[in-house]
Amino acid sequence: MNDILPPESARWEWLEAKVRDLMARYAYRNIRTPIVEPTPLFVRGLGEVTDIVEKEMYSFEDRLNGEQLTLRPEATAGVVRAVAEHSMLYDGGKRLYYMGPMFRHERPQRGRYRQFHQIGAEALGFPGAEVDAELILLASALWRDLGLQNVRLELNSLGQPDERKAHRAALIAYLEQHVDALDEEARRRLHSNPLRILDTKNPAMQSVVEAAPRLIDFLGPQSLAHLDAVKAILDANGVAWTVNPRLVRGMDYYNLTVFEFVTDQLGSQGTICGGGRYDYLIEQIGGKAAPAVGWALGVERVLELLKEQNSAPPSLAPDVYAIVPSTAVLPRAVATVEQLRQHGVRVQMHAAPSLEGMGSMKSQFKKADASGAMHALVFGDDELSRGMVTVKALRDGAGEQTERPLDSVAQWSATLQSTR
């Protein structure tokens, strides 16, 4: 688990602001659920034999009442619980999004920490393929807004339970014939969760996995029609896709459409966003049956990919650094700075480094330059006596300076913001 410090935290704020703006354009509303939930919620929701439940959850017993609790390893189960608990679907479907920390006990590596952060979108109460497609288009729009390149979309369908049951039987029969080629983990899952074997990263098993029965070959007309409808909407919107018949995702709750957005620039952590339809999860955790679909992205991975592609967010440096030669001018300086801030100008004001005074002008200009500000405001005694302040350029046209009247802050504040 790690701290996120300035200036890195500014990149997080920039990404979160982009997400909030995008979600508003798609009419998704924010939901915030607890970080701690009852452990059975995740066992029922994610599947008892998933990696997350078996190996990765941070679970503990409440010392006051003995309840089994878990730090959330993902957010969908909590969102579904909240929707069911508060009867949110009584008046129709809901489009929701969330941001926040999740917790899994994994081996830390690039783009993966034990406390990690996800942003997710969930559409609950909508059965149609158009909402699957809408969520994929929402994610694609985010990559566009962020300036991300070379992110590809992989699609698959997990069909419905009876189709998966027929495929499961065929898959087990096939794997039993190749049991000697399976690693220990695959053998353990052979009868409990054979579909997850198809997601193995073990190179020695790839030939066996590639030749295994494909779930898509067991899908009936309705499941295939649902997938085709998603494809048609994506095609109409110019979103490229490929079908990956081995794409199964890591949670047991999915059915029909599943998808991932993948990059080759982050090594083994190449999946930056994934999701799918989960029509049976609400009923599974005790709510009234309702269809649903959603996705989650890894914030750390997206930011890492932005770094790889040298796609830097706009500077969040102050517009102005206020130079204050003496404590005598502080009241006028602070009053002017406050007016600028009220007009939207980002101002960092110099503060005395010690009780001896405000520090030399040279040291203040050094701090002004290091702040990244475009301009310095110099509150000199002579200028203030004439009701003026000096504006000095620190970047473009460095060294150029003009005087501005203190009684017309509103008129020249826009100039200070225009060079962001």
UniProtKB/TrEMBL annotation:
Keyword hit for Protein biosynthesis: yes
EC number(s) per entry: 6.1.1.21
Gene3D superfamilies xref list: Anticodon-binding domain, Bira Bifunctional Protein, Domain 2
Known catalytic reactions: tRNA(His) + L-histidine + ATP = L-histidyl-tRNA(His) + AMP + diphosphate + H(+)
Top EC class for this record: ligase
Primary residence: cytoplasm
Self-association and partners: Homodimer.
Name this protein carries in UniProt: Histidine--tRNA ligase
Native source organism of the sequence: Acidovorax benzenivorans
